[in-house]
Design a protein that fits this description.
Blueprint: H1 11-46, H2 50-66, H3 68-75, H4 80-100, H5 111-126, H6 129-140, H7 146-154, H8 156-175, H9 177-198, H10 211-214, H11 234-264, H12 269-301, H13 303-327, H14 331-346, H15 349-360, H16 364-393, H17 395-412
């Protein structure tokens, strides 16, 4: 361990950390998705095809997925303060390097390999983001507040997805794609400096997380002892299996919602683009709402059924809306139903990560990395398998079968048990 043990954090520190984690994760997501906004300009300049650009996008996911588990182990051993500084500076550097690819004709013959390498390294650098934030919340935030804390950080996905096009598209239009990437990189660097300036220096627990062991009467976060071994827990693996299926469903909307609206529901391109943004704008509010509801349910129903209640209800309801969206003859009803499905799926993020941290305690880094590894496996399979099935059995049947997976994901929660001591305040 690199920092002295800290057994708990006062509420003011916990709130400050969550706010800083939101800023850092959102800045990272802006850097991560900036290339998708500037891709048309890059493709024109370098003569890249859609398939070639797709391989560049995939290079990120390969690095991100492969390094989930190692980055989770890193989060358990190295201070989050240092990790996020390195992450932010890495995001800024790699985004700037992307802007320099092919500058004044340099290296034009190897543009694709350069982009592959940069995006792969970007995935490696981004991999510790959510395992580290999950562990930070685990060692600083009371279990009864962990779902809303995690969900606020995870809402960075919606913030980044919604803000990046609005911010970078005008810059790309007026000053070119390289300038837009440099702006995105500067946001990452600024977030890193903000994090280093205001993040507490010592909040990385390396010893017991039991308040009674600290000798500090103000330590009251209710964290679990350092004993739990999540990778040996059946509950953890049921949770991870559910998260894999949840992500399989979620990635369909990330990659195929727009094309589904254009090619299957026959919306005009611009209309489809605006409708595709609706679910992600809604998730900015939906993810924190799911976390808050989960924490309220824990207070009223106890740890086990409190954490189960939101995913059980939301995933089953998402399955219903997915079937409606797939089978209704009305295109507008389909959009409304599929948007509701997306938001319901995303609102389970907070309960997933809060349950992981309560099962894992100080080992939330390796546990979060492992769970997120499964999630990204689902994300890698879903975009390829979904259209393959749709060509053979049709979109209606394909989406209806996927709704069945959402129900299975919900039912797996019945086998997830949060230990009683995690209910401490």
């Amino acid at each position: 361990m690199t920092d002295p043990a800290l057994t708990s954090a006062p509420p003011s520190m916990s709130k400050r950390l969550v706010l800083l984690l939101i800023v850092v994760a959102s800045a990272g997501y802006v850097c991560r998705v900036a290339i998708t906004v500037v891709a048309p300009g890059m493709m024109r300049e370098f003569g890249l095809t859609q398939v070639e650009m797709g391989t560049v996008f995939s290079a990120f996911l390969v690095g991100y997925t492969l390094f989930q588990v190692p980055s989770g182990g890193l989060a358990d051993r190295v201070s989050a303060r240092r990790i996020f500084l390195v992450l932010c500076l890495g995001w800024a550097l790699l985004t700037a390097l992307t802007a320099l690819v092919g500058w004044h004709g340099f290296g034009l013959a190897i543009v694709i390999p350069q982009l592959w390498l940069i995006r792969f390294l970007f995935g490696v650098i981004a991999a510790p983001t959510y395992p580290t934030s999950g562990r930070t919340i685990a060692v600083t935030t009371a279990p009864r507040l962990q779902a809303r804390a995690n969900s606020l950080v995870l809402a960075s996905v919606g913030v980044g997805s919604a803000v990046t096009p609005l911010l970078l598209a005008p810059i790309t239009s007026h000053y070119g794609w390289r300038a837009a990437l440099l702006v995105a990189g500067s946001i990452g660097a600024a977030a890193g400096l903000l994090w280093w300036r205001f993040a507490p220096q010592h909040f990385h627990s390396s010893g017991s997380s039991n308040p009674q062991d600290s000798g500090d009467p103000s330590a009251g976060s209710g964290l679990r002892e350092a004993g739990p071994r999540p990778l040996r827990s059946a509950s953890f693996w049921f949770l991870s299996a559910s998260y894999l299926l949840q992500s399989y469903l979620g990635y369909i909307f990330i990659f195929w919602f727009y094309l589904y609206l254009v090619q299957v529901r026959h919306f005009e391109v611009l209309q489809a683009a605006s409708l595709t943004a609706l679910p992600w704008v809604a998730t900015i509010f939906g993810i924190p709402l799911g976390g808050a509801l989960s924490d309220v349910a824990v207070m009223r129903l106890g740890a086990n059924w409190g954490r189960r209640s939101v995913p059980l209800a939301a995933l089953c309801a998402a399955a219903v809306f997915l079937v409606i969206g797939a089978r209704t003859p009305s295109a507008l009803v389909a959009v409304a139903a599929l948007t509701a499905c997306t938001v319901l799926v995303q609102c389970t993020e907070g309960p997933f990560w809060a349950t992981m941290t309560q099962l894992s305690g100080e080992r939330s880094g390796i546990a979060g990395g492992t769970m997120n590894f499964g999630s990204n496996l689902g994300g890698m399979v879903s975009p390829a398998l979904t259209p393959w099935l749709a060509e053979r059995i049709g979109w209606e049947t394909t989406l209806s079968l996927t709704a069945g997976l959402a129900v299975v994901a919900a039912l797996l929660w019945l086998r997830v048990r949060v230990e009683p001591q995690a209910e401490l305040l």
